[in-house]
Amino acid sequence: MLVHLLRLRPADPGPPLAEVRTPHGPAVALWRGDPADPPGPYHVEWTVDEDHATVRPAPGPAPAVRTEGGLLLLTGEFDGAGVLRTGDSLIPLDLPAPPGRVEVAVPCAHAELYPYTV
C-alpha cells in the first residue's frame, strides 16, 4: 500500500510510531523502517499481531483505515483463509472469521508498517 508518512513519534523502547495517511484514511502503527526516514510517500506492507487483534463484521463501508482510542481499525474483505484485502493491500491474518467484509481492531503498538522499495 502506498502511504504518506506524516511523522515518526519516538517510542521507548522499540521502533517509533508512524503517523501515516493511507488512501483509505489515517493510521498509526509501528514503523519498521529507518527511524530517521523523512516524511513523504512510502510503499509499505502491513503486519498485525493476531494475539492482540479482534475481528467482527464491518459496521461501515470497506476499504477503510482509521485509528480510534489507541486502536488501529482496518476494514476490508476477508477471504476466510487468512488474507484481508484493504484496497490494493493484502494483510495476512490467522484469525477465525467467515469470508466477507470485516473490521480488524488491534492496538496501534501491535500493528507494523514495513517500507519497501519498488
UniProtKB/TrEMBL annotation:
This is Uncharacterized protein. It comes from the Bacteria.
